[in-house]
Amino acid sequence: MAVLQAQGLYKSYGQVKALDDVNIEIEDSELLAVIGPSGSGKTTLLRSIAGFVQLDSGKIFIKSKDITDLPPEKRNVAMFFQNYALWPHMTVFENVAYGLKIRRYDKKAIREKVEWALDFLDIKSLAERKPNQLSGGQQQRVALARAIVVQPDVLLLDEPLSNLDAKIRMRIRFELKALQKKLQIATLYVTHDQEEALSIADRIAVMHNGKVLQIGTPQQVYKEPVNLFVADFIGVNSIVRIKPLDKDIVKVGNLEFQPQQGVLHLVIRAEEARVLPAKEHVTLKEGDLKLEGIIMGKLYLGSKHRYEIKIHGIEEILFINSEEAFKINEQIQIIIPKDSFFVYWQ
Amino acid sequence: MRAPALILGGMWMKKLYAIFFTIIVLAAIYFSMAQIYPFNWSIVYRYRVVFLKGLLTTMNLSGFSLLISFAIGIVFALMRRSSGILKEFALLYIFFFRNTPLLVVILLTYYGLGSVIPFDRFWAAVFGLSAFEGAYLAEIIRSGLDAVDKGELEAGFSLGLTRAEVFLYIHFPQALRISLPALIGQSISLVKDSSLASVIALAELTMTGRQVGTQTLASFESYLTIAIFYVAVTSVLSVFGNWLERRLAIP
Question: CB-CB: which of A74, A85, A98 is closest to B154?
Fold first, then answer.
């Protein structure tokens, strides 16, 4: 049973379509990540569920109840803000307690619940501090405590990790995922970071220009992208465009493709391609792609190198990461497993 | 913990030096003027009751005006932030009173409005001053309300607070903190502006000073006296303001 259902959401700002027939569902205790570049409509989607955006059309249901026309305060969704939006004039305790106070819980119940939330997020010792006396990571926990203490039906997270530095972000990802599973709250998680989404989400919705292009598990979205945009947006890729010369067949490395309308776009997952010396013998599996080329340049990245590779017969330069060391101008071959490259015509 | 105390001591010493130096300079100016102008401070003493009455009237006038103009300021700041007819009305109100001299406003309330509704001088001055200062306070409060992070308000809504609760517990308290320095400044202006009520012959401090000065010919003494009274009143306000600012400061 889906906790949240959004059906046929439309919203435009002048000529710009922020939401264009968006349909999503979130199951009980599921974490759905919405990803997309800036301007794709993901924040508009989140804000429309919170009630801060007046939809042009469409319906939103929470636990089968139509909440489309309810004001934000009547929706029982809790939103977590990118900049935390803590109330600086209240202590941590007061920040977390406020949602409960409004719900007219008695003093004892409030204290118990707030202490539970602070304990849950491991910030009990900060209860009497003011938000400006906390570090970014601590503020984030307070904001999270404030959101979960009211036991919302749906938790909305707007770029929750974007204000933290890279190292803390990695750690918090795990914590956040564990937390969400422990709480079992249906969660909508908006981010522009595809890696974050892949690692944390149960399902991912990829948005572009107000449309949801694909919804699926991280594996589905990564392994079976429905179009060029999704393939390119997820993962670290290198793309080459090949214009068919003759009408019969397009040859790319060892594979041949039937020409279709437009230009052939070859998307290669740069992490999964293997670069080998040209002379080395490899047995290819059915459907694997083999390209031959020459190293044009390289960047040292620590554990690996990033190579600029010119493929014979293709204009554009490929960028592939590899642990092997090659010299510039060395002849090489690239082996790309069947499910690590995608071909689109457009 | 000794170092800060020492620094504080140093600061106080500097302040004391500055005050001492200022007193010396002022005394020098005073005594050189006394060579030409025969100061007669006994007149001030003789008219002390009149002066104190004037001071009391000024304080009453300022006090009532402060209360009413804050109310006007809050209401019009909210109207200014709303939409439709209320916003237009607030804009017009603020436009009118910010572009009219206070002297004219007071004349208008006493001689103009006063000929329709019977006002005594005091209340005419209170209403003129409140209407005028209210327009300034409205703009100050509005900018404070605008300065509060919108996300904090939305966080309130999403936690179930109603519009009124968000305003009362999150929006207004923070806006007040943000605009406090400007509000204190405007309050001090109000006290000084109240001197213009002398134009409708209200016996407040300035009027008293002028009367005593012209009757006794001791103008210098009486104007200096009321100047010191104004400084005293506004100092109390600014000390109170500083205290409030420190008390409400968010660490």
Answer: A85
Q: Tell me: ipTM over 0.95.
A: no
Q: Does B157 contact A88 at a Cβ distance shorter than 8 Å?
A: no
Of A240-254, A292-306, B114-128, B187-201, give the lowest mean pLDDT range.
A240-254
Over the stretch B54-80, which tens digit does the pLDDT of each residue have?
999 999 999 999 999 999 999 999 999
Nearest beta carbon to residue B158 from set A78, A83, A130? A78
Name the burial class of residue A52, with classes exposed (0-12), middle (13-18) and buried (19+) by CB atoms within 10 angstroms of its CB: middle
Verify whether the Cβ–Cβ distance B158 to A85 is below 8 Å: no
Tell me how far apart the alpha carbons of residues A17 and B46 are, in angstroms, rounded to a whole number: 80
Q: Are both B86 and B174 inside the same structural domain?
A: yes
Give the range of the structural domain holding residue B31, as residue numbers without chain letter.
1-36
Both ends of chain A: CA-CA distance in Å? 38
Residue B1 has pLDDT above 50, yes or no: no
Reduced to 3 states (helix: H, G, I; strand: E, B; else coil), residue A19 is strand
| Cβ pair A83:B161 closer than 8 A | no
Q: Is the pLDDT of residue B171 over 50?
A: yes
Q: Are residues B10 and B47 in the same domain?
A: no
pLDDT profile of chain A (346 residues), mean per 10: 91 93 93 93 94 94 93 90 91 92 88 91 91 90 91 91 81 86 92 90 95 95 93 90 78 84 88 88 87 91 89 86 89 91 90
Query: Does residue A83 sit at the B interface (CB-CB below 8 Å)?
Result: yes
Which residue, A155, A176, A206, A269, is CA-closest to A42? A206
pLDDT at B2 > cutoff 70 = no
CATH architecture group of domain A2-232: 3-Layer(aba) Sandwich (3.40)
Judged by CB atoms closer than 8 Å, whether chains meet at B158 and A77 is answered as yes
Residue of A nearest to B249 (CA): A89
Which of chain A's residues have a Cβ under 8 Å away from the Cβ of B155?
A: 79, 81, 85-87, 143, 146
Instruction: Identify whether residues B21 and B91 lie together within a single domain.
Output: no
CA distance B99 to A77: 47
Superfamily per CATH, domain A236-345? Nucleic acid-binding proteins (2.40.50.140)
The whole-angstrom distance between B113's CA and the closest CA on chain A is 44
Return the residue matching tokens 């030096």: B17
Task: Judge if B32 and B56 occupy the same domain.
Answer: no
Q: Output the CA–CA distances (angstroms, integers) from residue A178 to A79, A201, A295, in the order listed.
A: 19, 11, 44
> Are B51 and B215 spatial neighbours (Cβ–Cβ below 8 Å)?
no
Specify the number of domains making up chain B.
Answer: 2
